[in-house]
């Protein structure tokens, strides 16, 4: 029937409109910004950088591999790799981004940067109130502005973050076990001379 979809949409709108007077669940609007709907875990707006620990510079997971920059369709990510290495949150020397900028006025929120990152260093945020009167500088975010803690990541994406934390904990346990094994002194067997059968070693 021609126009059946329009009629179905109008019927749903009318059901919500009249139903909102008797059932609060039918009230589909909120008085923003005084009222806010709960954040949905699957929401994705713009990328941010995850860091572990209390220091965002030391704990930054990004090792400046530049895969996200190469794979970004609108080319809104700009990275300059450091010339030196510094210890990360685990104490392991790593390269780090000397510069990491994202122009969110160009970002299309495709999440490709998240999918290609091998270090779980870049994730999608749920923040959307990013309006500014500075068209260029206000929407070009540097690495300090992009850096957010792993606790924040667990807050906005708890299921995904918990799985990654468990994976990291397992890898950390394996590395610690390997280091402990390497530090354990090995007892080498002292070779004994071959003696004829039945002959005893003289003792003093």
Description:
By secondary structure, the chain is of the alpha+beta class. The chain has six helices and eight strands. The protein has helices at 4-19, 67-71, 112-116, 143-146, 150-156, 158-183; strands at 47-51, 77-81, 86-87, 93-94, 97-103, 122-124, 140-141, 147-149. The strands form three sheets. The protein has a three-stranded mixed beta sheet with strand order 6-1-8. Helix 5 packs antiparallel against helix 6. It starts with a helix and ends in a 21-residue tail after the last helix. The model has no long low-confidence stretch (mean pLDDT 87).
Mean pLDDT, to the nearest integer, reads: 87
Strand content: 5-15%
Instruction: Note poorly predicted spans.
Output: none
The neighbouring-strand order within the major sheet is 6-1-8
Portion of residues within helices: 25-40%
Q: Describe the global form.
A: elongated
The helix-strand sequence is HEHEEEEHEEHEHH
Number of strands: 8
* Radius of gyration of CA atoms, rounded to a whole number: 29 Å
Number of helices: 6
Q: End-to-end span in angstroms?
A: 111 Å
Q: Biggest sheet: strands, sense, closure?
A: 3 strands, mixed
Structural class: alpha+beta
């Amino acid at each position: 029937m021609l126009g059946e979809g329009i009629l179905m949409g109008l019927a749903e709108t009318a059901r919500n409109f009249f139903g909102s007077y008797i059932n609060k669940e039918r009230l589909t609007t909120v008085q923003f910004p005084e009222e806010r709907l709960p954040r949905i875990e699957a929401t994705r707006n713009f990328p941010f950088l995850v860091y572990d620990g209390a220091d965002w510079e030391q704990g930054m997971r990004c090792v400046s591999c530049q895969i996200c920059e190469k794979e970004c369709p609108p080319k809104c990510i700009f990275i300059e790799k450091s010339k030196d290495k510094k210890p990360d949150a685990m104490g392991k020397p790593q390269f780090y981004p000397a510069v990491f900028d994202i122009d969110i006025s160009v970002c299309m929120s495709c999440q490709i940067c998240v999918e290609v990152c091998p270090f779980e260093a870049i994730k999608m945020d749920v923040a959307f109130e990013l309006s500014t009167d500075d068209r260029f500088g206000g929407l070009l975010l540097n690495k300090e502005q992009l850096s957010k803690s792993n606790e924040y990541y667990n807050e906005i994406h708890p299921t995904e973050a918990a799985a990654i934390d468990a994976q990291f904990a397992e890898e950390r346990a394996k590395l610690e076990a390997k280091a402990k094994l390497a530090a354990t002194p090995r007892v080498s067997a002292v070779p004994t001379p071959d003696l004829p059968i039945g002959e005893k070693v003289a003792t003093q």
